[in-house]
Write a structure and sequence with these properties.
Number of domains: 1
Order of helices and strands: EEEEEH
Largest sheet: 3 strands, antiparallel
Shape: flat
Helix content: under 10%
Oligomer: single chain
Structural class: mainly beta
Strand content: 25-35%
Radius of gyration: 14 Å
Bound molecules: zinc ion
Distance between the termini: 23 Å
Number of helices: 1
Strand order of the largest sheet: 1-4-5
């Protein structure tokens, strides 16, 4: 299922890397569910609309957050 731009309705280019000029670590999205052992972490990704330049952030592991 492709990601659709919420600005212009065109299909977005997914799996774009997010670069930080002064930091080595990847940005991660995390949430602690019921203690340390069930921490959920996901790498932040970006999708770019090649029609209007809109950028949106997303994670692939969203289902793990829902089921936690
Ligand atoms: Zn767009």
């Amino acid at each position: 299922m492709s990601r659709i731009c919420n600005q212009c309705g065109e299909e977005m280019l997914e799996d774009c890397e997010i670069g930080m000029r002064w930091k080595i670590e990847d940005i991660i999205i995390s949430k602690e569910f019921r203690g340390f052992l069930s921490n959920k972490k996901a790498k932040l990704k970006a999708a770019v609309c090649t029609s209007c330049g809109n950028v949106t952030f997303y994670i692939d592991e969203y289902k793990e957050f829902k089921d936690a």
